[in-house]
Specification:
This protein has 2 helices and 5 strands. By secondary structure, it is an alpha+beta fold. A hairpin with a 4-residue loop joins strand 2 and strand 3 (22-27).
């Protein structure tokens, strides 16, 4: 999946596949890459343009979607 670099202390890059509804996040700490499944397109828009990606992630994504570490 293509990811774009972002300006965040927690997150290095983000990407989204609208066909599968998969969000992919590369975290700065340890360089871990996680995918979050059944992620709605409207939430991607909110996340992509959030003032703080880390705060949005903690409040709206973490523990709210099925996830798997892929890297």
């Amino acid at each position: 999946m293509d990811r774009k670099p972002v300006n965040s202390t927690m997150i290095a890059s983000i990407g989204y596949d609208p066909d599968s509804g998969t969000l992919e996040i590369e975290f700065r700490k340890g360089g871990q890459i996680w995918q979050y499944f059944d992620f709605p397109a409207h939430a991607w828009s909110e996340f992509e343009y959030a003032d703080s990606l880390g705060k949005y992630f903690l409040a709206n994504i973490k523990n709210s979607f099925r996830a798997a570490r892929v890297g």
